[in-house]
Every structure is written in C-alpha cells, then in structure tokens.
Fold this protein.
Amino acid sequence: MSIHMPLNEHRAIEDFQLSAHDDHLEPGDIILDLENVSLAFGGVKAINDISFNIKKGEVRAIIGPNGAGKTSMLNVINGFYHPQQGTITYRGEKRTAMQSTEAAKQGISRTFQNIALFKGMSTLDNIMTGRITLQNKNLFLQALWHGPAAKEDIEHRLVVEKIIDFLEIQHIRKTPVGRLPYGLQKRVELGRALAAEPALLLLDEPMAGMNLEEKEDMSRFILDVNSQFGTTIALIEHDMGVVMDISDRVVVLDYGRKIGDGSPEEVSNNQAVIDAYLGVSHD
Amino acid sequence: MLYREAGDFKSTYAADQQTFPIKSERYLFWAFMAVAFFVVPFFINDYWEKSILVPLLVWTMVALGINILTGYCGQVSLGTGGFMAVGAFACYKLMTGFPDLNIVFVILLSGFVTAGVGVLFGLPSLRIKGFYLAVATLAAQFFLVWMFNKFPWFYNYSASGQITAPERTVFGIAVTGASSAPWATYLICLSFVFVFAWIARNLTRGRVGRGWMAMRDMDIAAEIMGVSPFNAKLSAFAVSSFYIGIAGALFFSVYLGAAEVTEAFGIEKSFTALFMVIIGGLGSILGSFLGAAFIILFPVLLKNIMVGYLGWPTDLASHFQIMIIGGMIIFFLIVEPHGLAQLWRLTKEKLRTWPFPY
Amino acid sequence: MSPEFLYFVETVLNGLMAGVMYSLVALGFVLIFKASGIFNFAQGVMALFAALTLVGLQTGQVPFSHLINAIFGTEIHHFGWTLPAFFAVLITLAIMVLFAYLFEAIVLKHLVNQEPIILFMATIGLAYFLEGFGDLMWGSDVKILDVGIPSGGSFWWEEVTRTWASEGSDYFGMYIDKLDVVAALVAVVLVIALTFFSKYTKMGRALRAVADDHQAAQSVGISLRTIWVLVWSISGFVALVAGIMWGAKSGVQFSLSLIALKALPVLILGGFTSIPGAIVGGLIIGVGEKLAELYVGPLVGGAIENWFAYVVALMFLLFRPQGLFGEKIIERV
C-alpha cells in the first residue's frame, strides 16, 4: 500500500477521522464532572473544594495565576493524583482511584507543561507510542515480528502518518525529538496525544514559549482537532487572547479555589477574576 | 558514492522499517553471515575458538540481554553474574537430571528458568528506580552466588563444589564436553546468537520496544499514556534474563566445561556486561555486538602487544588493561554516550554523502 | 551474667566496631553525593589508592618500578629511605587533593548536566582506572600498613569482662580489638567535624547550596569548580582515613576496594545525604550482620554476611527509599 499526499493540501483529509470512543454521549452532554474535589500534599491544599464540569465537544479553558492548582487539576483528571475528597464522574461512571494507565485506556490523553517527549526516540516512534493502548499482539508474536505483529504495526503506522500529515511534520518524522526546536516538539507532543484517539484531550500550556506565528498555528490545530474529530479539549493557557478566541467556556482558579466559571466574556468581566488575575488595562 | 542510494525509494512502510534499508548494506550483511556460517568452521582452531570466537559469541548474548534491560528499558542491573549462574546451574541440573534431553532444549529451558528468576528479582523495579535499583540488583547478585555455593543440591553434592558439563551432542556431533570439536562449539553458539539477535531486533522495533524506551525516557509520561510500568519493566527483566540465562548456560556447558560459582559468576561479570553496553552503545543491537567485541578482543590485542611483542610480564599487561578499560568508559561517557554504535552511525552518514559534506 | 548474654554483648560490640569501619567509607560517599549528586563508586578504590600511596611513601618505594623495570630491564624497587608516618600522611593527602583537582578538570567538568546514572557509571570507570593505575604505580602485592595505631586484642578488657561472667562458667572474656576502638573514636571525631563544617562554616553552606541547585548556587557567585575540588579533596581525606584504618586491620590489598559495595546498604539505610546517617546506618548494618550471622547463620549454613546487608537495603528501598535520615524524594510531572 502507498500513501500519496498532494503537496499543498494540508488538512484536506476527508477520509481521516479519529474514532471517538463509544460512550453514548451526545455533544453537549457532560463528559467529565468534578464535584467538591480536594487535593492536599502534606499540609498544602493544592485543590480546595472545586466543582466544575466539561461538556462533550467543547473547548474548556482552565486559567489562573501560577500556583493556582491548574496542573494539579489536570493530574487529577488523568489519574496521576488521587484527590482525598470529592467525586469524579467520567462518561457517566463514577471514578474512584483510577490509575493513569486506566485513564489512558478510557480515552483521556494529555500534553505536558514541560515537554515530556521520549527524547531517545524519533518523532514517528514517539507518536507510534501514543498508539500503544490500541495495540495488543503479545510478546511471542512480537518476537517473530513477521506476520500478525508486523501487520498490526503497519496498520497503526498508517494512522500515525495521517496525524503527521495533519500536523505538517512530515519532514521531521525520523528526527530524534531531542534535536527538534521547541515549537516542533510541542507539536509532536500534540500528535502523540492525538494518536491515542482520545475522547478527552488535556493540554497543559500548549503555547508556552511560542511566538505569535507559532501560537496561531497551534490554535488552528487545536480548533481543527475539536471541529474535525469532535474531541473534547481542556486546556490550561496563560495567553488571554488565545483563551478568548478558542475556548467555549472558561473556569478560573486561584490558590486552589474556583473563582469564576462561564463563557469567556462572562469570566473576563467577573470582578473577582479581574482582581486576582486579569488586572485592569490602563489605557 | 560508497553507498549507492539513488533510485532506492521505499514505497511501503514494511520496506521503510526493515533492518537494512540500504541495499548494499543488506548484501554485505548476508555475505558476512555466509562467511560466518560456511567458511569459518573449516578454518577455526582451538586458540581461535577458546580465546576469541566462543567467548565473543557468548558475551554478545549477554550484551544483548543487558542492553534490552538497561539500554532499551533503562533499568540498571548489576546482577548479570548471578543470572548467568542461574542459567548455568539450571543447565547443569537439567543435563544431569534428564540425560536424554537434547542440549538445545536444555539451554532454552535454562533461559526460561532464568527469566522466571529475573522477573522475581525485577519486582523491586516497580518501586525503585535508576541507581537505587542497581543496588537492589546487587542483592540479587550476592544472594544468588551465595545460594549456589551453600546448597549442595545445586552442584549434585560434589566435593569440589564445581559443576561439570557432561558430553552432549547435536545431530550426533559433540558440542559439550572434552571431545567437542572447535567448529561444533562455534556453530552452536553462532546459531543461538543469530536467532536471538534477530528476535531482539524484532522485539525492539515494535510495540514492546517502544514501551521499553518510553519507560526509559520518561516513565511518568509513559504511564500516563497507557504504558503499563508493570508490563514494560517486568517484560524487560524477563526477556533480558532469558538471554543472560542462555548465555550463562552456553558459557558453562560449551565454553568452560566446568565452573565454580564464585569465580565464574562473580560481580566482575556484571560490570563487564555493563561496560560492554556502555562502550558499544546503550539501546542498540549493533552496539551489543560492538561492545562485546571490544571488551573481548581488546585484552587479547593488548596481551599480544605487551607480552608477546614487548616481552612484559603478564600482570603489567593486566594492570594496563584495567586502567585502559576504565579510561575508555569515562571517555565514551563524556565524548559519545551512545557508544561505538553511534560512531558507526555517524560514519555511515558521512559515507552516504561522501564526497559531499552534506 | 551468663556466657550467652556476654557473647551477645560481645557480638554487638564487635558489630558496632565493624559498623564504624563501614561508616568511614560511607562518609566519603555522602559528601560527594551531597555536593554533586554523584554516587562515587570509586570511593573504595580511592581508599585503596590512598593506602597504597601511604605505604609506598613510608617504605620508600619507587613509583611505577614494575613498569620501569620491564621497559629498561632494571631491577630497582626502593629508594632506600623510609618516611615517618606523619610526613607520609601529609604527602598522601596532597596527592589526593591533586587527584581531586585533576579529576574535576578532566572528567567532571564535561559531565555536568548528565543524568545520575551516567555519572555513576563514570565513577565505575574511574574505579577501574584508579585500580589499574594504583597497581601499576605501587604493585599489586599485599602490603602491611603501620602508622603506629595500637592493635590486637585488649587484654585489660578481657580481664574485666571475665569477672562479669557467672560463677563456675569457663568464660574467657570479651575480645575487643584496640584498633577498632581507635577507628571508632576517629570516626566519631570526623563525623562531628564534618557536620560542624557543613552547618556552620561558609564553605559548608556553599556546599549545601550546590547540592540543592547547581545553577542557583552559581548565580549567587559560588564557583562550582572550587566546591567540587574541595568536596573531592575532603572525600579523598576521608578515603585516606578509611584506607589507614582498614589497611592496618587487614593489610592493603585489592579487596579494600570492594568496601564500596558494602557502603551502599549503609547509605540506603542512613540516607544518601545525611552525614550522621552514615554513622547510624553503618552501625545498624554492622550489628545486624554480626547478629544475623550468630543467630540465623547456623540455620542456613553460615556466611550470611555476604548478602544480609543488601537484603536489608532492599527492604528499605521498597518501603522507605530515603533511608532513616535522608530527604524525601518527590516526583512531579
């Protein structure tokens, strides 16, 4: 089989769909519900009695000053930290202490604030690793390679190549990611998260350290993922311009508490949010 | 121009992913294999067998094993000597307990036994990492050597505490014991290495290998992505110990013939294995071959120069040897942490574009 | 008191002494680890090298005599003079400082940002290199080290403890080696001195800063190079002390370098970053080993000492990896 990509048509991949996890939810239904969640490390309360929800198919921004507990929030959602109090309902099922590998299998995927790519591997291998929850040929078949294991690998490579095309990173597919510039690394990380075909995609400051052009590119990719594949996205972001432009709803955290929740306009006019984080512009 | 790649495009993923994508390399490899299998056996003598080829092949097996564990999966192990002992003793007990069992099966079974032991001693890796894990594996090393020394059942109650390999044949030709011919021992080792290097390549190129490397590079991120640390780490221990066990069985039955556990499988073996993969290249199949070759051949070379040519006493040569090996470790860690395999890769890159610079 | 109880006390005391000897070696590790995050596998070999150099200087050996003889066909071995212990110790110390300086300049500088495991393997390389170098320089035969430390069993103590035994028993009294007592005192003094140095002096503070964060320390003007040379020199000094004690006890030979391996369980128990922890860990391992050998040994055929310490370390690693006194290790994403 061969793949021919017309050179100047990016993202015109009609036949490419990330299969959403079958969860009987319609767009607009609540896919993740956090109620009275609290998380403490020793004496420090990172998350203090926070409740909010995320609807399927929306782009939900989580904003707030540094140390507000945003990354901890993502870590809770994806099973890396377990809250001492509160309930988490994901896709209609109450979750207790879910392990992060289990969360991955349930369709939660994420990127990290300080890039967590596998530096010893190439772009292609990194994104292929994102497929790992979907691969299952056992050790003995892998040892023989030729036959079922090779066939499975090639099928998954097909999907990964489509993601590579979608993100326009064909030229660096064999490059060890450690050698890539920062902006491209962030894109590869997005690709790796997409490869798992997530129902809920968590992005931790995907545009940190990028210039205007790179931010525009990344915003387009995020919006495309959301519109083309229907993936629900929760993102932490500091650039208020980006938040206003691409998110459907925003939740604002400060010192581990929720101080705002609503549409971008509502939140930017919320006095508590202005005091804590946004500030007032002096014209 | 040395590498002719023009016109050699890949149109399938399978072709893109093959081990030797460049045609000339592929031909070279098969030619080399042909020589190794069909030409060398006719010319091999006792010296080449005992001092160079068989130790090289056995240690390549060890290097493949430890590279899988430490190079690909990032779990440092100082227990290699102990695991080789498990392979050797399993081999011995099977040989003496089931004299009719074919030696090839015995060796494979010894590998499986060692895999089981490896998983057991690998369990701590689920809680401890990196350098601390190295210490835990030291416990395995010292405990296993002590165990094989202390309980006479392991060496069939022999007075000397030594285990000796009885003669066994493959297709009617002796491969173990005193009457085995050099070409026979060489061929059986070569066959094992050929098959298992191929398997190692297969494992590392697909899902399992990627899981191992993900564990090595960023274990927390890997876990969050769905790579189960339990599966990844323990499979690495299992496969790695399997290889080291087979190597230990071959080391004892085919190479040494007789062994005493403390001197044959002490901690120096663990360090030697680690040195091979550091110098050869962590995370590289080729690196396992190159590292083993370096560590085995270098002392031979040194001895030939110093003792044979310069006439110096042998202990001087061994002091220099230890010093130079230590120095080379440091050198490689500073200059090329990815070892000889990376140097080889860079040389190839240069050769592909030669005489143009890029 | 019954003989059994007295045997128990004797075992415990000897265990404490053995533990102190381990601690001496462990101290060197803690220092380097605290300041640079490197686990110096070569610490044991440094002790061996220091001891070899000391004996070589004392007896007036010609360095590299074996090599020189092989190249030139000569037969020289000794200069013919001997050096009093005091001067030999000072010169050896100077050599260890020189070694620290060279090692920092040639190796450490280039490995600054590497992961701990790479640094650890570099020290394994150093251990091999130094061992070969030491053998080349001074020869690999076993040497006797004598700097005037009293040794042998204490007859006085034997007499005293004999009187403690209950009437009619044929107890011979406890055997405590005077050398071990001296070593214990030296170790205690060293620990106190090092703890004081670390907590209250300017250099000690700088050391702790470097241990916490290399870059931050540099940004307040602390020179990494100076600190590392200082730390490796102090470690060299500690290695020398350990080398003298161990060498006086059992001769200067290759097995001295294997002590590095024994120090690992000590560090795991005590915590890699704690100076007092090195002592406590050493004592626990020392006593534990001896008691295990006495009570559990006969059940499984003896020689438990070979692996007992490691299994204890393993237990700690599984349940309390930071040891008794070390800093807790937290992982963040």
Remarks:
- The interface with chain B takes residues 1-2, 78-80, 100-101, 103-105, 109-110, 112, 116-121, 125, 128-130, 132-133, 135, 137, 139, 142-145, 149-150, 152-154, 157-158, 161, 192, 196 of chain A (CB under 8 Å).
